[in-house]
Amino acid sequence: MKKPALIMLAIAAPLLNACSGGPNEAAEYRHSIFHVIAWHFGTLGAMAKGEQPFDQAVFERKAGILENLSKLPWEGFQEGTAEGSDALPAIWENRDDFDAKANRFEEEASTLASLAREGDQQAMLDQVGKVGQACKACHDDYRK
Amino acid sequence: MKKPALIMLAIAAPLLNACSGGPNEAAEYRHSIFHVIAWHFGTLGAMAKGEQPFDQAVFERKAGILENLSKLPWEGFQEGTAEGSDALPAIWENRDDFDAKANRFEEEASTLASLAREGDQQAMLDQVGKVGQACKACHDDYRK
């Protein structure tokens, strides 16, 4: 265990340092994961808007990625980490409602991935709007 | 298609704007995905270093997340996006070598997830070091 431990010290510390800019690690994580989500969701949105040609393989891949990513932001919403971030303190005052909205986003993203595997183009593109609404429902109440 | 299109315009644009700080979208994406990777890998590293008690369920979940995330950074390494980022131009001059190192990271992360599902604690902790070495191999040659 000594060797991997030493390697980890050498690797993980600069890796984490290089990526984090401020004292609020949780906020940095939230910012990053939502940015990654927006990157992938952006492609699906562009297809729904007709800005980018529909591509079944790309859509299916991105929808699968989004389904996985949708589960990841929530561990970054630790109590006491609102300061200096876009997260409103209301999150921790209404945790049940916040969690319900987070779950809805996960469910809509999961439905999108299922529809993408089934391949009904219209249903897929409509579902992109439902995912977007789930994003918005949370942002309206809980983001600065 | 009109309605989701409008919703998407309302949702995706501010979502993307809120998350991106500069003109180099690809660099912002790379920064974000590596930060998310570091967040999850950090927990595994802390267990390997004995800084955090070993927890099979947490390890298995994080290793599974890492396996999925390891596939995501590479689409952000588009030609002509080195400027203003930590990516060295050498990436695009040695693309085959860079891709091989990226593949190695994916493979080591995938092995970690398999070992985590099997549950041999020593093998899992040793493999954390191998993943770290795969990170380092790329950073040594291709990161500022």
TrEMBL record, chains A, B:
SUPFAM superfamilies named among the record's database cross-references: Cytochromes
InterPro entries xref list: Cyt_c/b562, Cyt_c_II, Cyt_c_prime, Cyt_c_prime_subgr
Pfam families documented for this protein: Cytochrom_C_2
Key word Transmembrane present: no
Keyword Iron: yes
Record's signal peptide: 1-18
Protein name from the UniProt record: Cytochrome c class II
Highest taxon listed in the record's lineage: Bacteria
Keywords: Electron transport, Heme, Iron, Metal-binding, Signal, Transport
